[in-house]
Amino acid sequence: MTPDELQKFERDQFPLGAEVYDKLNWARCPKCKAKLYARDCTNCGRVCSRWDEKRNEWVDC
User: Fold this and answer.
1) Which of 24, 36, 60, 61 is 20 to 30 A from 45, alpha carbon to alpha carbon?
2) Cα separation of 41 and 31, whole Å?
3) Cα gap 43→32, rounded to integer Å
4) Gap between the Cα atoms of 20 and 49, Å rounded
5) How far apart are CA 47 and CA 22, in angstroms?
6) pLDDT of 4-13, one tens digit each?
7) CA–CA separation, 42 and 10 (whole Å)
8) CA gap 30, 14 in Å, rounded
Protein backbone atom coordinates (compact mmCIF):
# COMPACT_ATOMS: atom_id res chain seq x y z
CA MET A 1 0.00 0.00 0.00
CA THR A 2 1.46 3.33 -1.04
CA PRO A 3 1.36 6.39 1.27
CA ASP A 4 -1.38 7.87 -0.94
CA GLU A 5 -3.45 4.69 -0.73
CA LEU A 6 -2.95 4.60 3.02
CA GLN A 7 -4.13 8.21 3.33
CA LYS A 8 -7.21 7.47 1.24
CA PHE A 9 -7.91 4.35 3.30
CA GLU A 10 -7.60 6.33 6.54
CA ARG A 11 -9.86 9.09 5.17
CA ASP A 12 -12.43 6.46 4.17
CA GLN A 13 -12.14 4.58 7.46
CA PHE A 14 -11.92 7.62 9.72
CA PRO A 15 -13.45 10.67 7.97
CA LEU A 16 -13.04 12.84 11.08
CA GLY A 17 -9.41 11.80 11.63
CA ALA A 18 -8.18 8.68 13.44
CA GLU A 19 -7.37 10.56 16.65
CA VAL A 20 -11.02 11.64 16.99
CA TYR A 21 -12.13 8.02 16.75
CA ASP A 22 -9.48 6.99 19.29
CA LYS A 23 -11.09 9.40 21.75
CA LEU A 24 -14.54 8.03 20.95
CA ASN A 25 -13.10 4.56 21.56
CA TRP A 26 -14.48 2.80 18.52
CA ALA A 27 -13.23 1.63 15.17
CA ARG A 28 -14.84 0.28 12.02
CA CYS A 29 -15.27 -3.32 10.96
CA PRO A 30 -12.78 -4.06 8.15
CA LYS A 31 -15.41 -6.22 6.42
CA CYS A 32 -18.60 -4.14 6.46
CA LYS A 33 -17.33 -0.76 7.83
CA ALA A 34 -19.88 -0.74 10.66
CA LYS A 35 -18.91 1.04 13.88
CA LEU A 36 -17.41 -1.34 16.42
CA TYR A 37 -17.60 -0.87 20.15
CA ALA A 38 -16.44 -4.42 20.84
CA ARG A 39 -14.11 -6.94 19.23
CA ASP A 40 -16.82 -8.74 17.27
CA CYS A 41 -18.97 -7.06 14.65
CA THR A 42 -22.67 -7.20 15.47
CA ASN A 43 -23.56 -6.03 11.96
CA CYS A 44 -21.98 -8.70 9.74
CA GLY A 45 -20.92 -11.23 12.39
CA ARG A 46 -17.19 -10.92 11.66
CA VAL A 47 -15.08 -12.04 14.60
CA CYS A 48 -12.18 -9.66 15.15
CA SER A 49 -9.36 -11.14 17.14
CA ARG A 50 -7.32 -8.36 18.72
CA TRP A 51 -6.56 -4.64 18.64
CA ASP A 52 -3.16 -3.79 17.16
CA GLU A 53 -1.84 -0.64 18.85
CA LYS A 54 0.80 0.07 16.20
CA ARG A 55 -1.54 -0.37 13.23
CA ASN A 56 -4.47 1.18 15.13
CA GLU A 57 -6.93 -1.45 13.92
CA TRP A 58 -8.37 -4.88 14.64
CA VAL A 59 -6.23 -7.69 13.23
CA ASP A 60 -6.77 -11.41 12.73
CA CYS A 61 -4.49 -13.93 14.37
Assistant:
1) 24
2) 9
3) 8
4) 23
5) 20
6) 887 777 777 6
7) 22
8) 12
pLDDT digits (tens, 9 = 90+) for 19-40: 665 555 566 777 777 776 556 6
4-38 burial by CB neighbour count: b if 16+ within 10 A, else e? eeeeeeeeeebeeeeeebeeeeebbbeeeeeebee
Whole-angstrom Cα distance, residue 27 to residue 30?
9
**Res 3: pLDDT:** 76
Q: Where are the alpha helices (DSSP H) in the chain?
A: 3-13, 18-24
